[in-house]
């Protein structure tokens, strides 16, 4: 099967690593993205995102001619859709948006031929894989001997290149034959177990995994707010409670960001509001935690500086949605910073994984905390855990919202 040509639509946080991995595994890969700048960067053998080891994979793939990027779909044998699935608010619900998936489907429709594989990796509402099939039929595609399946990614940003290979995968085809053929394809480059099922089950599985995480994080965030109100160290509580053999409480934080855990639960909620009350409440708790943090910082400023003309300096450490990456998608740390700025605060932002940001200046650690009246640790980056930096933080007034100092 390695003589098959692969077309990957979407060169983002999943598409580009997947393209680079496959190209280094011996496949001929064309990567497609509508962003001409991204295409140009990739064709230079460079990367536009921070991901451990990705730069070496892309450089190698471009150098050996196994990977080339385009702005339009190219004739291939295997098509993998890795485009974003954003959402938009509709009254009190958040509705998933699969327009990019449908656009990618239309783009590949004219190229598909008998024997081709069509794979959706984008996180999607239940039933999206079937919609791809119906869309292809609508565009006049002959689906005789064409195999369509859903295969959700399960990677952790920062470990993507490793986990694309090592993690177990779930393959859900629109037919048993499609499931088997596409599972056989993934077995060529995945060392983890491959579990075969149907498309709807695979779609539900992906949403269930991230909703489970969201519910558990909500418990930790709710616990952190209760402990703060009672003058109790939440990190000590969690550490001691987790000594119980059947307790494993997650870590609270600034909220839940990223394009998975913060988004996927809404896909389930929007499809079945009546039976997703716990999931919806967890989403609300995790979103409220961010506002709770903003309120805590503003209250500190009002309580300590409102009677003077002095404008306090607030240092915010971390901007990405999770530690040690540059990804700002749905970042709650970014929400905190923007809210403080809109409230007229003097904010110094420290983010070691990002050189610059359009709306404000990013400074280094020492400049950020220098003469600061309050340091707010929003993301637990490994740079902030260095002993010499932790020693400097211990001399500051610190709100540690992610347990960096615990």
Write the layout of secondary structure elements.
Elements lengths: L4 E5 L5 H10 L3 E5 L3 H8 L10 H10 L3 E4 L7 E4 L5 E4 L2 E4 L2 H11 L7 E4 L7 H11 L8 E4 L9 H7 L2 E5 L2 H11 L7 E5 H31 L4 H8 L22 H8 L5 H29 L7 E5 L14 H11 L3 E5 L11 E2 L1 H5 L4 E4 L9 H7 L4 E3 L6
Parallel strand pairs: 1-2, 1-4, 2-3, 4-7, 7-8, 9-10, 11-12, 11-14, 12-13, 14-15
Antiparallel strand pairs: 5-6, 8-9
Helix pairs in contact: 1-3, 4-5, 8-9, 8-10, 8-11, 10-11, 11-12
How are the strands of the largest sheet arranged? 3-2-1-4-7-8-9-10
- CATH-derived topology of the largest domain: Rossmann fold
CATH class of the largest domain: Alpha Beta
Helix content: 40-55%
* Overall tally of structural domains: 2
Cα-atom radius of gyration: 23 Å
Overall mean pLDDT: 94
What is the first-to-last residue Cα distance?
51 Å
> Order of helices and strands, N to C?
EHEHHEEEEHEHEHEHEHHHHEHEEHEHE
Helix-and-strand structural type:
alpha/beta
User: In terms of per-residue confidence, which ranges show pLDDT below 50 for 5 or more consecutive residues?
Assistant: none
Q: What is the annotated CATH architecture of the largest domain? A: 3-Layer(aba) Sandwich
3D shape: globular
Number of helices: 14
State the major sheet. Answer: 8 strands, mixed
- State the CATH superfamily name of the largest domain: NAD(P)-binding Rossmann-like Domain
């Amino acid at each position: 099967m390695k003589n098959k040509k692969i077309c990957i639509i979407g060169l983002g946080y999943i598409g580009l690593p997947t393209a680079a991995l496959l190209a280094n595994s011996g496949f001929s890969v064309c990567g497609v993205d509508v962003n001409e700048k991204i295409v140009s960067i990739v064709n230079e053998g460079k990367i536009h995102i921070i991901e451990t080891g990705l730069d070496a994979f892309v450089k190698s793939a471009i150098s050996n001619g196994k990977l080339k990027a385009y702005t339009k779909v190219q004739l291939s044998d295997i098509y993998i859709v890795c485009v974003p699935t954003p959402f938009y608010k509709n009254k009190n619900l958040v509705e998933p948006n699969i327009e990019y998936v449908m656009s990618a489907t239309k783009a590949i429709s004219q190229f598909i031929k008998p024997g081709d594989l069509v794979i959706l990796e984008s996180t999607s509402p239940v039933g999206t894989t079937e919609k791809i099939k119906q869309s292809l039929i609508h565009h006049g595609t002959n689906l005789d001997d064409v195999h369509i399946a859903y295969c959700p990614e399960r990677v952790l940003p920062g470990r993507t290149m490793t986990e694309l290979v090592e993690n177990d995968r779930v393959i859900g085809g629109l037919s048993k034959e499609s499931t088997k053929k596409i599972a056989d394809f993934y077995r060529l480059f995945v060392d983890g177990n491959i579990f075969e099922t149907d498309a709807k089950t695979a779609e539900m599985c992906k949403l269930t995994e991230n909703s489970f995480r969201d519910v558990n994080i909500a418990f930790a965030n709710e616990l952190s707010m209760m402990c703060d109100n009672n003058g109790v160290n939440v990190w000590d509580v969690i550490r001691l409670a987790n000594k119980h053999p059947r307790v494993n409480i997650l870590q609270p934080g600034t909220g839940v960001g990223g394009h998975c855990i913060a988004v996927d639960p809404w896909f389930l909620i929007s499809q079945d509001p009546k039976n997703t009350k716990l999931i919806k409440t967890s989403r609300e708790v995790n979103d409220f935690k961010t506002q709770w943090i903003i309120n805590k910082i503003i209250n500190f400023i009002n309580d300590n500086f409102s009677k003077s003309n002095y404008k306090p300096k607030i240092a915010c450490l971390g901007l990405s949605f999770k530690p040690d990456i540059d990804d700002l998608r749905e970042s709650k740390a970014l929400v905190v910073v923007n809210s403080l700025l809109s409230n007229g605060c003097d904010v110094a932002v420290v983010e070691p994984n990002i050189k610059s940001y359009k709306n404000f200046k990013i400074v280094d650690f020492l400049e950020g905390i220098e003469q600061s009246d309050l340091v707010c640790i929003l993301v637990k980056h490994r740079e902030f855990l260095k002993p010499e930096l932790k020693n400097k933080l211990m001399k500051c007034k610190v709100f540690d919202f992610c347990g960096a100092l615990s």
